[in-house]
Amino acid sequence: MKITQAEFVISAVKPHQYPEDALPEIALAGRSNVGKSSLINKMLERKALARTSSQPGKTQQLNYYRINDQLYFVDFPGYGYAKVSKTQREQWGGMIESFLRDREPLKMVLHIIDVRHPPSKDDCLMYKWLKHFQIPVCIVVTKADKIPRSKWDKHMKIVKVTLEADPADPMVLVSSETGLGRDQLWSVIMKAIED
Ligand code: GTP
Ligand code: MG
C-alpha cells in the first residue's frame, strides 16, 4: 500500500464530530499501551502522526486519520487501564458501544493484542462485544519483535484459544518496530473496505 496522503482529522468526543463523508472506517481497539498508535504510524509510514506514549491511557477520544482520501483509521481509547475512574470507564463503554452498534461506515475492527501475554479478561470481553455486534474483526497480534521467532506460533495459538477466536477471523502477527506483517495487514484492510 502506497501512502500518498495521511492526516490527522479530529479527536472526536461526540458523534456529531465524526466525519460525514461516508468513507470506510477501520477502527483499532486494544488495551492501553498495547501499541495501537504505533501501529497506525507504521501502517502510514509516518513517524509521529499518531501520538504514542509509554504512559498508558493517553488516547482518550476517537482519533480519526484520513488516508489517501480513501479510508479512515479510528484510534479507540485503550481499555483496561486500572487508574481510570469508574465514571471514565463508563463513558468509554457508552461511547464505544454506540459506535460499534450504530456507526455505518465502520468496516472492520483491528483488535490489537500483545504477543507477550495471553489475552486479558478485558480483551476477551472486547472480542465478545465485537462478535455480538457482528463487526468484521482482524486479530492483530503486535510487538512480535519482543519475543523470539521460535515462540511466535505458540503465542499465536494461546491468543486464539484464550479469545475463543472465530476460525474465520483473520489473524496477523505484526511489529511496529520492524514492519513485520504490514503488507499482510494492508491486504486484509483493503479486502474489508471493498466488500
Ligand atoms: P494508548 O493510546 O495509551 O491506549 O496506547 P497505545 O495502544 O496507542 O500504545 P502506543 O502505540 O502508544 O505504544 C505503547 C508503547 O509500546 C510505546 O512505548 C511504543 O513504542 C511501544 N510499542 C508499540 N508497538 C511496538 C512494537 O511493535 N514493538 C516494540 N518493541 N514496541 C512497541
Ligand atoms: Mg494511543
TrEMBL record:
This is Probable GTP-binding protein EngB. The lineage of its organism: Bacteria, Bacillati, Bacillota, Bacilli, Bacillales. Belongs to the TRAFAC class TrmE-Era-EngA-EngB-Septin-like GTPase superfamily. EngB GTPase family. Signal peptide: none annotated. Necessary for normal cell division and for the maintenance of normal septation. It comes from Paenibacillus mendelii. Transmembrane segments: none annotated. Residues 22-195 form the EngB-type G domain. It comes from the Bacteria. Pfam families: MMR_HSR1. Keywords: Cell cycle, Cell division, GTP-binding, Magnesium, Metal-binding, Nucleotide-binding, Septation. The keyword GTP-binding applies. Gene3D superfamilies: P-loop containing nucleotide triphosphate hydrolases. The keyword Metal-binding applies. Its cofactor is Mg(2+).
